[in-house]
Structure formats: C-alpha cells, structure tokens
Design brief:
The chain has 284 residues and is an alpha/beta fold. The protein contains 9 helices and 10 strands. Helix 3 (104-121) crosses helix 5 (156-168) and helix 6 (175-202) packs antiparallel against helix 9.
C-alpha cells in the first residue's frame, strides 16, 4: 500500500494497528469540530495517551497532513471493523458550532484526496448508501457523536458523485496532476525544440563554432539535459521507490519492454511522465 502524493505535512502518530492483509475498501470522513491546522492535528494525535488518530487530515487552509500511513489502521471511528477497511480523513471546519461549516477549499481538497485514495487502492466507485453498508462512511454510524457535523454530512452524496465522475473519466487528473502534467509536457516540448535547433547548427564543434560549444556547456551546467538523460536500465534498488509500481505495471502488461540486454533505458523525465499518466488512470 502506498500513501498519497498530495500530502503537505507528515507527523506520524503512535496510535495505530497494522492493517495486515486487510484491503482498503472504504473511506470514512470526519470533521475536527473546530478550526484546525494540519500541524494542530498532528500535535493532537502525537501522544499515545490520546488513543486516537486518523490516516489524513485537511487543515482549514486546504493543506493535507498524514498521521497514520495507509498500510496501518488509524484509531478514528470507534469501530475496528470499519477502520481496518477504511482510510480515515479528518476535515477542518471554517467556523465553530452551528452547522459546523466546511470551506469550499477544503471540500475540493477532500475530493482530490478521495479520488487519489480510490485510484491507488483499486476502489472503482464510492457508494454512499446512507448507512454503514456503503463504502463512504461517517463516524456517527458507529458511535454516539454528531461527527461529521450537519454541513459535511449533507455533502456526502455530492462528494461521492464528484469522486465517481473523476474515476469514470478516462483521462481524469486532479488539479495538482493537471498542473504537473502541463509543466512536464511543456518541458518535453521545449527540450525537443532546443535539441533540434542545436543539432541543426552544431555540426562539428571546432574553432569556428566554439561559441556554440560554450552555449551547450552552459545548458549542461544548468542541468537542462539531466532530466532527459538515461539513468535507469532495470527495476532494481536504483530505481526511485515512487516509480517502481508504475514501471512494474507497464512491464507486466507488456507496454514497456527493454532493448539490448533487456535494458529499459529510462530517464527521470520519462518516468515522471509515466507515473503521472498512471495516476491519471491511463494504464488501467
């Protein structure tokens, strides 16, 4: 099991159990019953005496914190059966009392996080049934509490709909992934254009085009070609851990094959693009 790449802050709590072989099948959403930051939630869950935690928390400013890794069961919902199967999320309110309102910024980040959790754990749809039989659950079904608060509870059908729309889109990406992909695409296009322009002019580097060589050296010093250079040939300890699941998937599906001596000839730029496309659901 992996953790969300959307996380902005990490402070791991001692309050958890090993999930073992239990698969992640559900998401359980809570509210903080107040205005909270990701740092504040981390401090709350830090003492062992607290006997409480959550896998993730969304602060009042939309930042995402992680307090229990997804491979572990957080102590959040007063129900071991639910929490062993669920990723639990605490969401900050933007005011105290009343309907316990939650900002649109936090709701947007909540949808992004739920989409990411579903994609990485093979959850095809979020089913909100209004009771514990669905895979989108709330705290009040397992304990005498008002959590997740009147406002957030009213948003559960909308949350499920928005997440499912994203999951059903063949090329769906979170807003963060869209920005990363656009930046990578522009980087690839610019590198290709610059490479062609330089190749057209370079010829044999000698006295008559020494100035061109200086320019090439300048680009090299800047690391322009570093991301495009071949660095990894095999799936081994040298390949970044964040890239291994995607590369293994593509090799197993026969979509990525090696050349001479089965060398994959992967560059950092290539694996970054492949990982983003994989997170977008391109490879199934």
């Amino acid at each position: 099991m992996s953790n969300s790449p959307l996380v902005d802050y990490i402070r791991l709590s001692p309050n958890y159990n090993r999930r073992g072989l239990t698969p992640i099948l559900k998401i359980t959403i809570h509210h903080t019953a107040g205005v909270a930051s990701v740092e504040g939630m981390g401090a709350t869950f830090a003492p062992a005496s607290r006997q409480g935690s959550a896998n993730y928390g969304i602060g009042f400013d939309g930042r995402i914190g992680m307090y229990v890794e997804e491979c572990n069961r957080a102590w959040t919902s007063s129900n071991a059966e639910n929490d062993f199967q669920a990723v639990t999320i605490e969401v900050s309110n933007d005011s105290t009392g009343g309907v316990w309102h939650v900002s649109d910024v936090c709701l947007s980040k909540l949808v992004d996080l739920c989409v990411d959790i579903c994609r990485r754990n093979g959850i095809e749809r979020l089913n909100f049934t209004g009771d514990a039989s669905g895979n989108l659950t709330m705290h009040k079904w397992f304990a005498p509490t008002a959590c997740p608060g009147e406002y957030l509870e009213s948003k559960f059908p909308w949350i499920a709909d928005e997440v499912n729309k994203r999951l059903e889109e063949s090329e769906a990406m979170t807003d963060t992934e869209k920005k990363e992909f656009a930046a990578l695409k522009a980087e690839v296009e610019n590198l290709a254009k610059e490479n062609k322009r330089l190749q057209d002019k370079i010829g044999t580097v000698s006295g008559e085009n020494a100035d061109l060589k200086k320019r090439l050296d300048h680009y090299d010093d800047m690391g322009v070609y570093d991301n495009a250079a071949v660095k990894w040939a095999y799936i081994d300890g040298n390949l970044p851990n964040w890239a291994k699941p995607t590369i293994k998937k593509l090799v197993n599906k026969g979509l990525l094959k090696g050349g001479d001596k089965n060398s994959l000839e992967l560059s950092r730029l290539m694996i970054r693009i492949l990982v983003i496309l994989d997170r977008a659901g391109t490879f199934g």
